[in-house]
Amino acid sequence: IEKQENIAPTILIVSHSDGVEVQDGYVENFRATVADDDNSFEELSVAWYVGEDLVCDWTNANPAGESTCEIVLEDGDSNVIAEVRDPVGAGGRSEIAVSVLPTEAPIVELISPSASGNHYSDQLIQFSALVSDAEDDAEDLVVLWTSSLDGELSLDNSINSNGEISDYTYLTEGNHAIELRVEDSTGKFSTEEVVIQV
Fold first, then answer.
1. How many Cβ atoms are within 10 Å of 65's Cβ, its own excluded?
2. Fewer beta carbons under 10 A from the terminal one: N or C of the chain?
3. In angstroms, what CA-CA distances link 167 with 11, 15, 124, 154, 156?
4. How far apart are CA 33 and CA 10, in angstroms?
5. Backbone angle region of 57, left / alpha / beta, with phi > 0 → left and psi within -120 to 50 → alpha
6. What is the DSSP string of 41-85?
7. pLDDT tens, 53-100?
8. Is 143 in contact with 157 (CB distance < 8 Å)?
9. Which helix (H) or strand (E) holds 194?
């Protein structure tokens, strides 16, 4: 009986081209196709790496001969690798270079309350700001107001399409360090602070 030689599987990243530019911190959906002359697709397992770091562990290819992996690339990452193995351990790999473009933190302009205004514990105080981001729509930013005395403030933090935030609440008597924190979809954030007397 002649021993039939095992043919190594092959893999090709098809979702992105070599040298692709991607933005720092955003999810990218990578996809690769596999092929093997002597094994079915479901018998092939695929793993994904960024550099030497495993980002999607070994899983079987789907019945269509595809493997997918969601990857968040960061500044400094330079390549994505997909590796395939068959049941006897023969393998192949596909590698592409990536160029990661840095993204910006949100821009925050705190309008009110102001340090010079008169504020009273029995009167509503306005909290307003103007926010924007180079990559995200203003409405997608996450806003948090806090006070050094009263903690997280219960305010309507919805942002209109012009990037404006405005709402009113009461503060207790005393000196408050008010902080406005604005975060974008990649986790980058900016803060603005004002100290007021109530």
1. 16
2. N
3. 55, 45, 9, 10, 6
4. 8
5. beta
6. GGG-EEEEEETTEEEEEEEEPPTTSEEEEEEE--TT--EEEEEEE
7. 999 999 999 999 999 999 999 888 999 999 999 998 899 999 999 999
8. yes
9. strand 189-197
